[in-house]
Amino acid sequence: MNKTHIARDSIYRVDGDLTLRLNAEAKEKMLNGEHVINGIIGMLSDEEGHLVTPDFINDIFLENLNDENKTYTSIFGDKIGLENCFKWVCQNYYSSINKKLMHEGIFTPGGTGALSLAIRSYVGYKETVLIPSIGWINYETVCMQAKVNFDYYEMFNENGSFNIKSLINKAEEYLKKEGRILIVLNDPCHNPTGYSLSELEWKLLIKELNKLEEKNIGQITLLLDIAYIDMSSSIDTRFFFKNCEFLNENILSLIAFSASKTLGIYGYRAGALFAISNNENELSDFKIVSKTLARSIWSSPSHHIGSSLKSVFDENNFNTLKSYLSSISFYCEKRYEKICELNKNSKLIFLPYVSGFFLVLKMKNAKDFCEKLRSKNIYLLPLKDEYVRIALCSLKLSDLNELVEAMISVSNF
Predict the structure, then answer these.
(1) Which residues, at least 6 apart from 259, have a Cβ–Cβ distance to it below 8 Å?
(2) CA dist 167 to 60, 125, 183, 212, Å?
(3) Res. 164: pLDDT tops 70
(4) pLDDT category, 14, cuts 50, 70, 90?
(5) Mapping DSSP to helix (H, G, I), strand (E, B) and coil, where does residue 262 land?
(6) Is 224 helix (H, G, I), strand (E, B) or coil?
(7) For residue 55, how many other CB atoms are within 10 A of its CB?
(8) How many whole angstroms separate alpha carbon 111 and alpha carbon 270?
(9) Which residues pair with 107 in a beta bridge?
(10) E strand spans, 30-179
């Protein structure tokens, strides 16, 4: 006899999400006055441990707390707000994209809402989503809840570069089996490695995707997760938008955007899903399916959030926002440089990092390694069996000596 009222084919995890559970444990210890190093959660903190959010963002959200924004908005959200958001996402490449391509969008509850909406819309029951071999664990959860399969392409090749060959080979395998494939690519500032594709890598990837599409063996959808697009000032983080016009017409581009990281408003759950194509029918289908699914899951987005984002991403605020983001990018970069400096005489091995919130340590028996650190009140996140994610964003420079010493001492070198 079934011991729970939950449907037999529902996917649920008894202990909840490991990231949030460990973060809650670390925060409780800190509230009790214990010394804790928390390298778990993906939220940017300053060197005092305070959440980083600019005053002008807070002011805009306060200004939009009014009766009008307590009413329902459309299922897509504020039209001008969506266009302002898309302009911010594309920035210097907005005009060229608008000349050669078309787009549609919908506001979602965070980047996760955008990813979930995309997968539920473009992947059929028991069809397959390709995700990176090292990636955000919630991709798997989203796929399981949507009752679709997932498989991995290798993130890196033997040279430590993005493994285009693995992605293309896997995509071709499933195109031959299923006649369609959705590929998830988290770039730039990949979670959890901090890797970003170079412009050359993007050009090569687009070239290979086009070759694959020209074999006429199925439909290709590219779902680009740009949650961390604004988390680096040292590189151009918009190479895709510079080159997306060169994708074949029959390849659909979906963009999952998260305002959480860009604006430091994680709990507000502000995101958007955009579709880019030069096929009007494709975009019409996007509007129909996203409207229907959104209505059945969250109904309509927050009116307050949409109105606030319309103001935040107004072009008059672009320079202010760019200046702010440039001023905070050094937090993670300096923490990464400090860890490398402390590690220069040890054998700790990190995966290729360019910029962003996270860094990955290669470590056998990752769970045991993290448990040993946890006994010292140091919290890091184990990924599968051989990787450990370090949230540079939530650490302080003053904690890094202790952190690196502890990692070396429990690594059994």
Answers:
(1) 85, 265, 268, 270, 271, 272, 309, 312
(2) 42, 22, 8, 11
(3) yes
(4) very low
(5) helix
(6) strand
(7) 8
(8) 7
(9) 272
(10) 37-38, 102-109, 128-132, 149-153
Distances from the Cα of 315 to the Cαs of 87, 94, 309, 318, 319, in angstroms? Answer: 8, 12, 12, 5, 8
Given a contact cutoff of 8 angstroms between Cβ atoms, the answer to whether 266 and 111 are in contact is no
Q: Is 350 exposed, middle or buried (0-12, 13-18, 19+ CB in 10 A)?
A: middle
Q: What is the pLDDT of residues 224-267, one digit of tens each?
A: 999 999 988 667 889 999 999 999 999 999 999 999 999 989 88
Whole-prediction pTM value? 0.93
Residues 6 or more apart whose Cβ sits within 8 Å of residue 257: 85, 89, 111, 114, 226, 227, 229, 271, 272, 273, 274
Alpha helix segments (H runs only) across 253-388: 259-263, 280-297, 303-312, 318-328, 330-342, 366-374
The token duo for 154 is 């290798």
Q: Three-state SS for 383?
A: strand
Residue 88 CA to its chain's centroid (Å): 17
117: three-class secondary structure by DSSP: helix
List of E strands, 46-144? 102-109, 128-132
Query: Helix axis angle, 366-374 relative to 400-410, nearest 10°?
Result: 130
Q: What dihedral do alpha carbons 19, 40, 158, 201 form, nearest 10°?
A: 90
- The Cβ of residue 118 has, within 10 Å, a number of other Cβ atoms equal to 30
* Number of CB atoms found within 10 A of residue 236's CB: 14
Peptide bond into 192 cis (omega under 30): yes
Condensed to tens digits (0 to 9), the pLDDT of residues 56-102 reads 899 999 999 899 988 999 999 999 999 999 999 999 999 999 999 99
Helix (H, G, I), strand (E, B) or coil at 299: coil
Tokens 């006055």 locate to: 33
- How do beta strands 180-186 and 128-132 pair? parallel
Do the strands 102-109 and 270-277 form a parallel or antiparallel pair, or are they unpaired?
antiparallel
Alpha-carbon gap, residue 357 to 344, rounded angstroms: 21
User: Judging by DSSP bridges, how do beta strands 149-153 and 381-383 pair with one another?
Assistant: unpaired
